[in-house]
């Protein structure tokens, strides 16, 4: 009966408004992190953000989480801004049906700045995660993990998230330009609570991520 109803709706041209299996979103990254907002120990050469890499997925995939150990792919992005290993991890997750699509965006050559990317999402893989390196840094990054673009009412028209600085736990460095010194064993992922990202009222955000439905 459901299949017959769906076929009828398609014939009448109503299926797109009633059965919303897929959607398309734009992700806009607005980075506010700069020498003005975060003056402590600001690097002389300035700051930038690496290329962004993200994915749409279901609940059994986790790109990063507070208290987890960073994967090799997350470590490579956080320490060097290189997405190749994480892309390989995501490709494997695609084969296991945990990830649906992978998307990438240009980095930000000078902060503050913006970048954006569009991507598809579907009902079975309605969550999205992404990361980008805060550079220079030992292993600091920003991003979001497990954002669900669908709720009980359907696809969300817009969702805005604050971006914080995260420490991947893989490098001992404590300043923007610390020498590479691996943590053995690696520590867990956590928010960066050093003076670089602390203000009078607590942690300072590094920007915002805005998801806007565009289809």
Could you explain the architecture of this structure?
Helix content is about 15%, strand content about 35%. The protein is built from 4 helices and 15 strands. Strands 2, 3, 4, 6, 7, 11 and 12 form a 7-stranded antiparallel β-sheet that branches. A 4-stranded antiparallel β-sheet has the order 5-1-15-10, with no helix packed on it.
Any key phrases for this structure?
7-stranded antiparallel β-sheet, Immunoglobulin-like, 15 strands, 4 helices, 17% helix, 215 residues, disordered N terminus, alpha+beta, 4-stranded antiparallel β-sheet
Number of strands: 15
Instruction: Describe the largest sheet.
Output: 7 strands, antiparallel
* CATH homologous superfamily designation: F-spondin domain
CATH secondary-structure class = Mainly Beta
Encode the helix/strand succession as letters: HHEEEHHEEEEEEEEEEEE
Average pLDDT number: 92
Number of helices: 4
Q: Which residue ranges are poorly predicted, with pLDDT under 50 across at least 5 consecutive positions?
A: 1-20
Question: Could you say what the CATH topology is called?
Answer: Immunoglobulin-like
Supply Rg. Answer: 19 Å
Class from helix and strand fractions: alpha+beta
How many structurally independent domains?
A: 1
Helix content: 10-25%
